[in-house]
Specification:
single chain, alpha/beta, D-Maltodextrin-Binding Protein, domain 2, 2 domains, ten-stranded mixed sheet, two-stranded antiparallel ribbon, Putative amino-acid-binding protein YxeM, Solute-binding_3/MltF_N, signal
């Protein structure tokens, strides 16, 4: 038997083993709209729905659970979860987790400003003397985090940051482009807030699974099927539904920096 059929056979046996024991792949994640979130008791989101479709094609049953991000990581470390959705790749976790070669999506951390007080920043130098709203547990790249040009002011939620922005308590806020647009729509702020052209940093999001028997082959099959699905009109429609693809060529990007590796409790 050649190598490829052998790999497919082992991967299939892994899936059949889970089914035979009545087991499901236990995936944990934190709500992170529009990538994954709870909509009146129904799970939705670009990365969630993409992952569901891929696993359905692979014949793998999944049990989902929403938890605070720090608890998601703890469950992975303790073996109480098999994988996590929308996790950044950290080399610190390579001994514990396997990452598919194909990411689910890419986060773009950008800036938003109130239209009444426009600050269309094109470089971090344009933030000199300003106050930028941030969210706990998110790291936006070394250049942004270590800069002394501006003040960083945390808020308990993305919604709180947008409220502070309209009240003039902060000059700008930083969050993922899709997340920001989703919050703006949810809060009815389409005519009150705009996105600055600067992309502070980018980071890919993955479905990662704990290392174990057959998991390396499952990750390979997941990556291959995910890559195929992304070429289909169904994925294009799904992406458009949740804010479309990031317009990389239309944005100004700060020098590339890693977003997560600096802190184990970050995504």
């Amino acid at each position: 038997m050649s190598v490829i059929p052998k790999l497919l056979t082992v991967a299939l046996l892994t899936c059949l083993s889970l089914a035979a024991h009545g087991e499901k792949l236990r995936i944990v994640t934190e709500p992170w709209a529009p990538y994954v979130y709870d909509d009146n008791g129904a799970m939705r989101g670009l990365d969630y729905e993409t992952t569901v479709i891929v696993f359905q094609r692979l014949g793998v049953d999944v049990e989902w659970q929403f938890l605070p991000w720090k608890r998601c990581l703890a469950m992975l470390e303790q073996g109480h979860a098999d994988g996590a959705l929308d996790i950044f790749h950290s080399h610190d976790r390579d001994a514990l987790l396997l990452y598919p070669s194909e990411p689910l999506s890419e986060v773009e951390f950008v800036l938003f400003y109130a239209n009444e007080r426009p600050y269309p920043a094109q470089t971090l130098d344009d933030l000199r003397g300003r106050t930028v709203g941030t969210s706990p547990g998110y790291l936006y790249g070394t250049e942004f985090t270590d800069s002394s040009l501006f003040t960083r002011e945390p808020a308990p939620s993305h919604e709180a940051n947008f409220g502070k922005l309209l009240l003039g308590r902060i000059d700008l806020l930083i969050t993922d482009s899709r997340v920001g647009q989703h919050v703006i729509k949810q809060l009815g702020m389409e005519d009150k807030v705009s996105q600055a052209p600067l992309v502070v940093s980018r980071q890919q999001q993955f479905l990662a699974v704990r290392r174990g028997a057959g998991m390396d082959l499952l990750v390979q099959r997941f990556a291959a099927e995910l890559k195929r699905f992304k070429q289909e009109p169904a994925y294009t429609a799904l992406s458009a539904k949740y804010g479309g693809l990031h317009a990389k060529n239309a944005a100004i990007t700060a020098p590339e920096r890693t977003v997560e590796q600096q802190e184990s409790s970050a995504r």
